[in-house]
Amino acid sequence: xxxxxxxxxxxxxxxxxxxxxxxxxxxxxxxxxxxxxxxxxxxxxxxxxxxxxxxxxxxxxxxxxxxxxxxxxxxxxxxxxxxxxxxx
Length: 88
Hints:
This protein has 88 residues and is mainly α. It has a domain at 28-80. The chain is built from 3 helices and no strands. The protein has helices at residues 10-23, 27-39, 66-80. The mean pLDDT is 90.
């Protein structure tokens, strides 16, 4: 099995760690799935193999919509990196 090593700033690591947690994934598994999906344009062809599926977990007991929770998660990650917030 091959390995890839990358250098990250502290804020990049925090944002990736937060995203992995939001998706219920370990960082290496999340990175592998996202890189394969991007390298193969997997999303352009509709559903992909479950092996490469990535979905953000959204608790149902927060009293807000799923879209609002997803927006909050992405904006939290964007704030870590100093990026402008977005509206979904």
